[in-house]
Specification:
The chain is built from 29 helices and 19 strands. It is α+β, with helices and mostly antiparallel strands. Strand 17 and strand 18 form a beta hairpin. About 6% of the residues have low confidence.
Length: 752
């Protein structure tokens, strides 16, 4: 950002944006506090005057955009609008939180203070510090959820304007958004925002694939809309005859969700058949319950179209944990295609669009605790036992953000919501941490099951306990929920502290029993050297656990080497080098430092430098043509990862400054081993056709082959040598032309 005078046109642009904000606000049901919002605008505009964003536009356009998202897309009121307008004032100017409080009151000041604490993104150069920032963000849930909602609005506008940032910054911000902000928006019920955050993250991480899918969607749009009009016409007619006011809209699958399905099922765009969904939003009659009327409309639709028996989703009887309510049914259209129909009332629609903000608007009383309320309570409980490692806490918390739900019952018939994949042990910790710590197993539907049993929808679960049972380290392998993991880690930390205390006492007692006087600090150092440990706390822990016995302490401290050693055992204690001393910088580190001075943060991968200057990561096995990035590790080596590999996702969120954009410039000199999986009909001679395609048509060498057939279906894995991604894709196209071949995909393998 830099300071400069604004032109008259820019001043007018700021004023027009503010008037648009007031217009958005006027169209809400909120009590109009225009004077307060106007004061906040003028104050922020004066504070940011002359400052520009990286894109060159006046900085004030950003707080205005965030405020408009808050009111128009989340449905928040005057307090949030003012807080959004002021959210960067304390961070970027000389004004303080006290100034904000004096001018705008305690509530707005508290929200601005909360936003200031978590400025700069969840992750930064110092990942653990920024993860701790995220913990602070969640703590504000107990104070005021609006801090989180405004932060999501802030992130959405930053993503909408990400194009002005350098490539490595785009990777970092997009990775962070995909990792935590999109799941958080999902959990808070902000579905349109969650979808847009996913799409924008995907756009900056995979620009070519994004453009390709977007172009195919655009080319397909007229056909999809024609299908929608034909499909919806008889439904419109039926709903009008039932006397409903309603709207029917077409919902086209998002670019990111299409790509995700293509990757998950290893299919091309043309084979993604559920691109179209139809949404019905109606105003219910007063004479009947919303639930009954949704099912009446369901009956009307299924009289017109045949329903898919396994694809009915009833989120009215049991809403999702984020408050989502709707009835979904998938039916067969006129042309033989499956179309999902979503049925919602006006109230359900506002809950789905505006999430948490609408959730409180519709609360009817203190006893009306939704699944979302329960989730927020669980967050507060987890925060009471913070993880020692802030990044670990973040991973633990993220486990529960995007999980699909299953509904299970207690022995008394009380319904509980659990994330898909949750175990009996997770359920025990959900009920109470004491039950979890003493759990020995469970009865599911009156049958005994182990702690690791994965719960299924409709299970009735009874937890079995024993006073002599205590958590074991491997229990962390049996749990998936944030609460269970947090409780277990808190227990193990308590146990560890107890072991350390016991170990320290045993060590001091053992030293006191020796016949010769000993300097305690030197004795500890001698023991650390002997057991190859670095910290006294590690020594005490191992002693406390019984892993280190103290029987040979005298021999370690007084080795029988010489009379001099016997008289002065610590005279020759080797002095350890200071932790401050570091190795000389490597060539790559020097190169990175030089590059850091310039704007460029990119590398080119050639046949000559691969394996020498740049190392292909084992975790994702990239080959020329894959979208990749570089990561400069602490050992000075540059590792090349595929952009969408799990390790790269973590690096993008925690080590943004060490990332480099990377491009290929190879010339089919080196070949790379890739594992491909082929499935198809086990017809005589089919695999001969496969081998001919690979070896004769493409002249590709094979390293290994493993094929098995069962009940007329065969499945094979082959390791082949290819030059680049294009050769692999061309091979896939040819293999798919063999009539019996039904699926071909690339398998991610870890190098041995």
């Amino acid at each position: 950002m830099k300071e400069s005078e604004f032109t008259q046109a820019e001043e007018q642009m700021i004023q027009r944006e503010f008037e648009a904000l007031l217009d958005d606000y006027a169209h809400t049901m909120h009590r109009q506090k225009v004077e307060l919002i106007t004061r906040a605008f003028h104050f922020a505009n004066q504070a940011h005057h002359g400052v520009r964003r990286l894109s060159g536009e006046p900085y004030m356009m950003h707080p205005l955009a965030v405020a408009r998202i808050c009111v128009k897309e989340i449905g928040l009121g005057s307090t949030s609008i003012c807080s959004a307008l002021l959210h960067d004032v304390v961070e970027d100017t000389d004004y303080t939180v006290e100034d904000i409080e004096n001018l705008f009151g305690e509530k707005i000041a508290m929200i601005v203070a909360g936003l200031t604490k978590i400025s700069g993104g969840v992750f930064g150069e110092h990942a653990s510090e920024q993860a701790e920032n995220f913990r602070k963000l969640l703590l504000t849930i107990s104070d005021d959820i609006r801090v989180v909602l405004i932060k999501i609005a802030d992130r959405l506008h930053n993503m909408r304007t990400l194009g002005s940032q350098p490539k490595e910054k785009q990777y970092k911000i997009a990775g962070e958004t995909q990792y935590i902000y999109a799941p958080l928006a999902h959990r808070l019920g902000l579905f349109p925002i969650k979808t847009e955050l996913e799409d924008l993250s995907f756009k900056y991480e995979h620009p070519e694939m994004y453009a390709e899918i977007e172009a195919k969607l655009a080319a397909n749009k007229n056909a999809q809309m024609a299908t929608f009009e034909t499909f919806s016409a008889p439904i419109r007619e039926r709903l009008e005859s039932m006397g409903y006011q309603f709207s029917i809209t077409a919902r086209i699958k998002s670019v990111y969700s299409i790509w995700k399905k293509m990757m998950t099922k290893q299919i091309p765009f043309e084979d993604v058949y559920d691109l179209l969904a139809v949404r019905i939003v109606f105003t219910p009659h007063d004479s009947m319950s919303e639930k009954d009327q949704c099912w009446m409309i369901y009956s009307a639709i299924t009289e017109i179209y045949r329903p898919h028996p396994e694809r009915i989703r009833d989120w009215i009887s049991t809403p999702k944990a984020n408050g989502y309510e709707a009835l979904h049914v998938t039916v067969m259209g006129q042309s033989g295609e499956w179309v999902e129909v979503q049925i919602r009332t006006d109230r359900m629609h506002e809950l789905a669009e505006h999430g948490l903000a609408a959730h409180w608007k519709y609360k009817t009383g203190e006893q009306d605790e939704s699944e979302l309320d329960k989730w927020l309570s669980e967050i507060k409980e987890i925060l009471e036992h913070p993880e020692k490692d802030a990044m670990e806490f973040l991973d633990t918390f993220k486990l529960n953000l995007f999980a699909q739900e299953v509904f299970v019952f207690t022995p008394k018939g009380e319904i509980k919501t659990m994330p898909q994949g949750a175990t009996a042990l997770d359920f025990a910790f959900l009920l109470h941490s004491e039950l979890g710590e003493h759990c020995i197993g469970a009865k599911v539907n009156h049958t005994l099951v182990p702690l690791s049993y994965e719960l299924k929808g409709g299970d009735q679960v009874e937890i079995l306990t024993s006073g002599s049972q205590h958590p074991q380290e491997n229990w962390l392998d049996y749990v998936t929920t944030a609460k269970a993991q947090s409780c277990l880690r808190a227990y193990f930390r308590r146990e560890e502290r107890s072991y350390i205390k016991r170990g320290e006492k045993l060590f001091h007692d053992a030293i006191g029993m020796l016949e010769m006087p000993v300097n305690m600090d030197m004795a500890v150092q001698k023991m650390l050297n002997h057991y190859h440990l670095t910290q006294p706390i590690q020594l005490y822990l191992q002693i406390g656990k019984g892993a280190i016995r103290l029987n040979d302490t005298q021999q370690i401290l007084f080795p029988k080497k010489s009379i001099w050693n016997m008289l002065n055992p610590f005279a020759t204690v080797e002095k350890k080098p200071s932790a401050e001393v570091k190795d000389a910088p490597t060539v790559l580190e020097k190169e990175a430092a030089e590059k850091g001075k310039k704007k460029s943060h990119s590398i080119v991968l050639t046949d000559e430098n691969l394996g020498k200057e740049y190392i292909l990561a084992d975790c994702c096995h990239p080959i020329p043509g894959d979208e990749v990035l570089g990561y400069l590790a602490e050992d000075g080596k540059m590792y090349i990862h595929k952009i969408d590999c799990e390790e790269a996702m973590l690096l993008k969120t925690s080590h943004g400054k060490r990332l480099y954009s990377a491009t290929w410039n190879t010339h089919r000199v080196q070949s790379f081993v890739e594992t491909i999986e082929i499935q198809g009909i086990d017809k005589f001679g089919v695999f001969i056709d496969v081998l001919k395609t690979i070896t004769e048509q493409f002249h590709i060498n094979m390293r290994a082959m493993n094929v098995a057939a069962d009940d007329g279906i065969f499945k094979g894995q082959l390791e082949v040598y290819v030059y680049d991604k294009k050769e692999l894709q061309d091979l896939f196209v040819s293999l798919r032309k063999i009539p019996e071949i039904k699926a071909v995909k690339r398998v991610m393998t870890v190098n041995s």
